[in-house]
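At this stage, I needed to go through a protein sequence along with its fold in token form, as given directly below:
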Amino acid sequence: NADIEGQRVPLNTEAKYQIKMRNKSHGLPTVLKLEALLPKNLSYVGIEGALPSGVSAPTSTNVGGQTLLTFNMTTGALPNGASDFKTITIKVKTTNDCNALIDACSNKLSIQPKLVYTVANPAENREQLSYKKLADCAPAATTFYIEDAPCGQSSRNTLPYCAAFELDGGAGYASYKWTKQGEAGGLATTRTY
């Protein structure tokens, strides 16, 4: 996936998520918190820079193998009618386990922030989602790049003794097609090759 600067994120690398919030309404929240559910295969590293005024350091909870960060806020943290954004930058690190990313949905690194608040006048309790729910992951076409001649450049060789190996396309896809770059036709249509 890509980080906030649009760069692809390799394994075992730090990346950042940036959340911007503002209150454009006329109501002032009496209870306010931000919840940010991190994707699987990311670990929470910390916060970059200072938190906005009235925003507490997050608590971290494990929810089904994912990290849920909860930022509690004072009532004045998001003043009503504000034109400027309050920004939180979250630092994370990707997994170093390539095998954790081979199924259809585990390499989707989309953060899931949610603002939970209560407004006194008019009375309102809300959960404002800033993402599409990922409850059911719909697998889509995915490209895996494999170097098929690992012994050709010994400086990049990570396979012991340049032995034969099996490639696994991962579970959850409707169909599979193995192709070799630059060549017409397919090599196989099975999950493994």
About this structure: The radius of gyration is 22 Å. Confidence is low (pLDDT under 50) at residues 131-136, 145-154. The first strand starts at residue 14 and ends at 21.
